Amino acid sequence: MTHEAATGGAGGPGLPQERRLVTAVPGPRSLEKFARRQQLVAAGVGTTLPVFVERAGGGVLVDADGNSLIDLASGIAVTGVGNAAPEVVERVVAQTAAFTHTCFMVTPYDGYVDVCAKLAELTPGTHAKKSALFNSGAEAVENAVKIARAATGRTAVAVFDHAYHGRTNLTMAMTSKNMPYKQGFGPFANEVYRAPMSYPFREPAEIDGVGAADRAIDLLEKQVGAANLACIVIEPIQGEGGFVVPADGFLPRLKEWTSANGIVFVADEIQTGFCRTGDWFAVDHEGVVPDLLTLAKGIAGGFPLAAVTGTAEIMDAVHAGGLGGTYGGNPVACAAALGAMEAMETHDLSAAARRLGAVMTHRLDGLAKAHPCIGDVRGRGAMVAVEIVGADGRLPDPVRAGALSAYCHSQGVVTLTCGTYGNVLRFLPPLVMPDALLEEAFDVLAEAFEATA
Ligand SMILES: *Cc1c(COP(=O)(O)O)cnc(C)c1O
Are 416 and 73 in contact (CB under 8 A)? Predict the structure, then answer.
């Protein structure tokens, strides 16, 4: 069935918003290309679904065999504005024709400063803010830690159970899950300490958000000492760790404690930022104003760009020349970010995220009634997941989660799994997805529950 494209998305104007299967998924052309990939690309680089994409826009990916797949991944929460969004393409084309690189540290240009201005305006709090731009989320997290250490003169970093912060050496240490992110890659950076997270589905109901925060604070005070902590780094809603939404009150209590103890509060909004959760940033929901935010993924409609944005005084604690990188804030990536943020504003993609989230949650609540293997439906806005469990209602069932995802793939719906236990199915549609196409994807998911029962 063909649905109206929500935007004139360029992958593009005229790319029908439909699920259309003309071969098996993956089809013969994709399989041939995948065989070549296996010969030439390092085995350590994984693949969720081996279809080779040739065009994409709105809510669909079109593969080399002509199959049109419904995209519930957005390239891991990146293409919130849709693939090849017109606002992004236009600015990227113009910037590419003008110049492609100077290195901002050699000779600056407006795009970088314009992105910093936009981030100061959109991030929480009315205080003076500054930003520094980088290439990837992991690089932003590394730099947030550098800035926090320089600002406090302290070294310890606190992170949480189930956290994901990246694949570089420091961010591997900060990431919780061993396999596949850390196995065999040590030794890891020291001075990283892990505290318990608020994970309502997997802890007793009497532990509320404030109680869970106090539990983490107690551990950090006893095992590390507040006076040694440069920063805590926390995802307001965890991404790779399983879309864990902490109980209400958890983040505000942590923020209160960090402020009282001179600890920099870093919100890692790399997955949750830029309208994904129905607000510009996930912390907006609880009225928490972080000292620093790390931003990437959704920021630039698919171009590699990342940022650390925060309190001017903290950002300015680093000596001149202490931050940077050859490509950080590349002019083409900055042009893409300005286009993406314009698209978020003109199409009110926060409202779109809330609407898509309501559709998904409604469908998933219905499925949960029929299928006891759905232990929990959670998330916010268009960042929604189900946790798949065994007959006891708790034991993680990663095999069933994998089978559900595989069924969706075979029927032309791109889904992702995540979670410490690998048993969480997560849904991250582009925020420009037509509602009817999303409904069709969830019809397929409903079939998947029947087919894998
Ligand atoms: C993806 C992600 C990162 C790492 O970003 P990369 O661009 O892959 O380096 C860090 N933190 C969170 C919360 C993420 O989701």
Answer: yes
Query: Does the predicted model carry a pTM greater than 0.90?
Result: yes
Out of 164, 182, 272, 327, give the residue to mutate to test ligand 1, the one with the largest number of ligand atoms within 8 Å of its CB.
164
Q: Give yes or no for residue 235 CB within 6 A of ligand 1.
A: yes
Ligand 1 mean position, distance from CA 66 (Å): 31
Ligand 1 centroid from CA 179, angstroms: 16
Burial of residue 346 (CB within 10 Å: 0-12, 13-18, 19+) is exposed
**Cα 412 to middle of ligand 1, angstroms:** 26
Q: What atom of ligand 1 comes closest to residue 306's alpha carbon? A: 7
Q: Calculate how far, in angstroms, residue 122's C-alpha sits from the geometric centre of ligand 1.
A: 20
142 lines ligand 1 (CB under 6 A): no
141 Cβ below 6 A of ligand 1:
yes
Residue 419 Cα to ligand 1 midpoint, Å, equals: 14
- Domain 86-346 belongs to what topology? Aspartate Aminotransferase; domain 2 (3.40.640)
Which residue's alpha carbon is nearest to atom 10 within ligand 1?
165
Q: Which two tokens stand for residue 31?
A: 């399989």
Q: Cβ(296) to ligand 1 under 6 A?
A: yes
Hey, what are 105's tokens?
């540290």
Q: Rounded to an integer, what distance in angstroms lies between the CA atom of residue 312 and that of residue 59?
A: 38
Domain with CATH 3.90.1150.10 in the chain: 9-81+348-451
Which whole-number Å values give the CA distances from 250 to 106, 196, 277, 422, 434, in the listed order? 43, 11, 17, 24, 34
C-beta of residue 164 within 8 angstroms of C-beta of residue 177: yes
Q: How far is the CA of 65 from the centre of ligand 1 (A)?
A: 31
Residue 144 has, within 13 A of its CA and on its CB side, a CA count of: 37
> Which homologous superfamily is 9-81+348-451 in?
Aspartate Aminotransferase, domain 1 (3.90.1150.10)
CA of 306 to the centre of ligand 1 (A): 10
> In this structure, are residues 91 and 338 in contact, taking their beta carbons and an 8 Å threshold?
yes
pLDDT in tens, the chain (453 residues): 455 444 444 455 469 999 999 999 999 999 999 999 999 999 999 999 999 999 999 999 999 999 999 999 999 999 999 999 999 999 999 999 999 999 999 999 999 999 999 999 999 999 999 999 999 999 999 999 999 999 999 999 999 999 999 999 999 999 999 999 999 999 999 999 999 999 999 999 999 999 999 999 999 999 999 999 999 999 999 999 999 999 999 999 999 999 999 999 999 999 999 999 999 999 999 999 999 999 999 999 999 999 999 999 999 999 999 999 999 999 999 999 999 999 999 999 999 999 999 999 999 999 999 999 999 999 999 999 999 999 999 999 999 999 999 999 999 999 999 999 999 999 999 999 999 999 999 999 999 999 999
